[in-house]
Amino acid sequence: MITESTQFETLNRRRKVLVVGAGFMGAGIAQVSAQAGYQVHLMDIDTSITEKALKEIRWSVEKFEKKGLLNDPAEKVLARISLEEDLSCASSMDWVIEAVIENEEVKRRIFQQLDRIAPKETPLATNTSTIPITHLAEETSKPERVLGLHFFGPVPLMGLVEVVKGEKTSQEVFEQGIVFVRSLGKTPVQVKRDIPGFVMNRIFSAAFREAVDLVDQGIVTPEDVDIGMRLGYGWNAGPFEIADNAGLDTVARIGQTLKTLGEGHLAPNSDLIERMVARGDYGRKSGKGFYRYSPEGKRIPWKHENDY
User: Fold this and answer.
1) Is the peptide bond before 154 cis (omega within 30 degrees of 0)?
2) Domain 4-191 maps to which CATH number in 3.20.20.20, 3.40.50.720, 3.30.420.270, 3.40.1010.20?
3) DSSP β-ladder status, 124-126 and 95-98
4) Do residues 193 and 25 make contact, with C-beta atoms less than 8 angstroms apart?
5) What are the sequence ranges of the domains in the chain?
């Protein structure tokens, strides 16, 4: 039997991490991995995205340093991050985490390439929030090494990661994922059966579906829903605050994916999110979503009805 101490010994030998995708989630995963002492390679096909990600990571790490939340100086953490333009470096990685757009075909193509390049003993993880791990593992010659590591954003601030076992994920790789998550200072939730949306997003989606429908019908405002969930049910953030932080374009894609996978009962009946995305209202990252945001990202409650 593999003990956790054995897993930590193995982990200590696995210090190089490739993060594929330098968007909001990928940058966050790269940051926490570097903070935990890993040598991180952050890759995106668009170099402007990786450069922007590195600037955002620098801002975040320096902020953490000022608050005394880092074990190492900010510059030492940042020195552990290298920017990559292609997947070739996967050949020397100990962990690979895919964190690109929530599009199954795009992710499948990436896993095809990673399967050819990465060492056969290297776990291949996906940060997908809805797509079954088993679908992506089908593109590899060793599906037993594919698992889900579903981080929650913003990654540096959120303490939760779902570790998801695909139909063919080996128990050893599943356990390695749990230990890896703990090494980042995060708490793993073990998802032992591969279902669309996993656990946390299914629970959230059920609540969010009703919240969106009630708002679109004019029964309640997003702000009052968020206040109610914080004060009435003890949520740290309300569903519309969470959606704005995640990005409404991401939320819309999750809803479409759930429908495609036959889980439409978890997606809102209303097309409110799609209408907002069509206007360019993506949430915090665009400065406008269910709330307005200052250039510094501070949330400003909307003062007029139907602003959303």
Assistant:
1) yes
2) 3.40.50.720
3) parallel
4) no
5) 4-191, 202-299
pLDDT tens per residue, range 221-256? 999 999 999 999 999 999 999 999 889 998 998 898
Q: Cα 213 to chain center, whole Å?
A: 25
DSSP 291: S
| Residue 98 DSSP label | E
What pTM was computed for the model? Answer: 0.86
Three-state DSSP at 56 gives: helix
Cα–Cα distance measured from residue 103 to residue 21, given in angstroms and rounded to the nearest whole number: 13
Please list the alpha-helical segments (H only) found in the chain. 4-12, 24-35, 47-66, 74-78, 104-117, 133-137, 171-183, 200-216, 222-233, 239-246, 248-260, 272-278
Residue 189's DSSP bridge partners are: 162
DSSP 145-201: GEEEEEE-SSTTT--EEEEEE-TT--HHHHHHHHHHHHHTT-EEEEE-S--TTTTHH
Q: Which amino acid is it at 127? A: N
Rounded-to-integer distance, Cα 64 and Cα 73, Å: 10
**Inter-axis angle of helices 200-216 and 239-246, nearest 10:** 110
The DSSP call for residue 13 is T
Q: Which of 6, 13, 17 is nearest to 124 (CA)?
A: 17
Q: Tell me the pLDDT tens digit for each residue of 20-29.
A: 999 989 999 9
Catalytic residues: 129, 150, 162, 201
Distance of alpha carbon 171 from alpha carbon 118, whole angstroms: 20
CATH number of 202-299: 1.10.1040.10
